[in-house]
Amino acid sequence: MAQPVDLPKGPSGRIPLAQLDLAEVETSLVVFDDGAIGKMQENSAPSSDGSQYSMITYSSEQLAKIEKRDKEEEIEVIFLRLLLIINILYLGLFLFVRENSEWPNWINATGDWKGVLIFLPPIILYNLALKFSNFSEGEIIVFPVNSDPHYFLSSSKNSETISWLIGSPLGLGIGCLFSIDGGELYCDAGIILLLLMTAFIHARERNSTDETILRTGEKTQSVGLQAFFDFVLEIQREQKKKDRVENSLLNLLMDNESPTLEFKSSIWTQYHGVTGVPVSEQKSPMLELEDSVVKTVAAFLNTQGGTLLIGVKDKPRSSGDAVAEVLGIEPDFRWTRKKDEEGIQHSLIEIFRNAYSNTNSMYHITISFPTFEDKLICRIDVEPLPRKLGQQCYTNTKKDTKYGKKELFFARIADTTENMSPSTQWDYIRHHFEGFSGKNNES
After folding, report:
1. Residue 204 is part of which domain span?
2. Could you give the 3-state DSSP secondary structure of residue 22?
3. Mean pLDDT of the chain
4. Same domain? 426 vs 307
5. How many CA atoms lie within 13 A of 297 on its CB side?
6. Measured between alpha carbons, how far is residue 304 from residues 90, 244, 350 in Å?
7. How many separate domains does the chain show?
8. Do 177 and 277 belong together in one domain?
């Protein structure tokens, strides 16, 4: 595991947590404690905000999404094999010269071109590596809100190994020149050290792909492409969860329904639309309303999370930031065994467990009961499921929908919950849950 590297603080005292080395020399992509992302180039002049970072986003809210594209390693593998063959040949040349204190006959025949013959191949390889081979582990694509995406090519885990393998023939060639006169012990030791360092660097870079991130105060961990990508997603999830938890009930009631906010009048109780009074003739719980709650929570799980307030009447957008009318969850008590908020909570947990295919869904759902003007509200905060293939949530409903009532897929589109058709849900899952990529996206 690489040691943490000190980095300067970002604008407004932001603390850097993870660093991704880019293919651009001495340049890194850095994620901060608030989810902001910046680019840092060592020894560059301070930017307009006084820091050493060129900020890409200034908060987690400004990041629409982040993508990772792995790069094919065929060119790197071919180049590494070529370098390995050349190093073996140069090592053989060095051992021959070291043993015999003379050049092989085929080199002796070149006369004054010995130096060119020895040093030209590694110089050509070096220039080829610089001009024609963009060695990289892949790229990170950052999509800020309402802005064009930014593309960042990460450095390759083999970059240092390639540099040393290019430099090794030069060192072996110099060793040959020393060995013509009989050789010296320090020359042999230097060559052995060079080869050992090459092997060590290659092994260290291979192991670095499995390193984990350590959040150690004001230190940052240099990580690989996948680790950096996962860490940004984790920071985003933590920040969004924090924002949702800290968002006051009053702010939610003043807001309008959105991709992450929904109001429901009740779980089972039917209301008169105009007066907001419960229908007195109702004799049994209204399962269509229960299904509506189940669908909304499922859509939050499959999309970007959100908050559902039950016991709150829908409000028209024309009302602006006026407080939504609170009806209270108390009329639903009659449909539960314990006739209180605990009965509501137990019922919802049982409903969700029976409805959702993903058994981990309940770990992403938090149920609470705040009050507003002496009326009880059921607040359901939902964290999105991991964006991994197989983590998507399918839903069973009590009442039939246009696609039946088994293994339905719901997603949040704008401020509505959409029941997706089999073909539409496949396309959605393919593009939103990691695991469908590359060749799979072509199908």
Report:
1. 74-135+158-208
2. strand
3. 80
4. yes
5. 33
6. 57, 12, 23
7. 2
8. no
Contact 365, 380 (CB under 8 A): yes
- Of 117, 132, 120, nearest to 162 by C-alpha is 132
Residues in the chain: 443
pLDDT at 242 over 90: no
* Nearest-angstrom CA–CA distance, 145 and 152: 17
| 409 membership: H or E segment, kind and range | strand 409-413
Split at pLDDT 50, 70, 90, the class of 160 is: low
Higher-confidence residue: 205 or 412? 412
H-helix or E-strand spanning residue 233:
helix 225-246
CA 422, distance to chain mean position in Å, is 27
Structure tokens at 155: 């450095």
pLDDT digits (tens, 9 = 90+) for 29-86: 888 888 889 898 877 776 666 678 888 988 887 888 888 887 766 666 777 788 788 8
Provide φ and ψ at 63, rounded to 5°: -95, 110
Residue 1 is predicted with a pLDDT of 33
Binning pLDDT at 50, 70 and 90, where does residue 396 land?
Answer: very high
Tokens encoding 270: 């039917």
Task: Establish how many alpha carbons lie within 13 A of residue 5's alpha carbon, considering only the half-sphere containing its beta carbon.
Answer: 13
Residue 218's pLDDT is 43
What CA–CA distance (Å, rounded) separates 436 from 142? 19
Residues 6+ apart with CB under 8 A from 31: 16, 17, 18, 37, 228, 231, 232, 235
